[in-house]
Amino acid sequence: FTCVAAFFAYFFLVDFPEKADRSWKFLSTEERDFILRRINKDRDDAIPEPFTIKRFLKPALDIKIWILALISL
Fold first, then answer.
1. Sign of the alpha-carbon torsion through 9, 44, 18, 57
2. What's the 3-state SS for the chain?
3. What is each CA distance from 72 to 44, 61, 66, in whole angstroms?
4. Which residue among 42, 47, 50, 57 is least crowded, i.e. fewest CB within 10 A of its CB?
5. CA 11/CA 23 separation, integer angstroms
6. Within the chain, what is the greatest distance between any pair of CA atoms?
């Protein structure tokens, strides 16, 4: 049952705020802009940065992560 529910939920869930006005007309354009301004004021990441492999792998160079992983073994 869970897999079937997840399949249907995928189509009914609203996208991120920058695309929410196109998902089921969940938000109007004005409401979307208001939410984006609030998110940017709060944490300044409403519009996601593009993916780069360099940014993705940067934490792998942090020694603290490796130490924590070794401690957890």
1. negative
2. CHHHHHHHHHHHCCCCHHHHHHCCCCCCHHHHHHHHHHHHHHCCCCCCCCCCHHHHHHHHHCHHHHHHHHHCC
3. 33, 18, 10
4. 50
5. 10
6. 50
| Residue-level pLDDT, tens digit, the chain, 73 residues | 999 999 999 888 887 888 777 777 788 889 889 988 998 889 888 777 889 999 999 988 999 999 999 998 8
State the Cα angle at 17 between 12 and 23, rounded to 5°. 35
**Phi and psi (nearest 5°) for 17?**
-55, -35
Prediction pTM value? 0.55
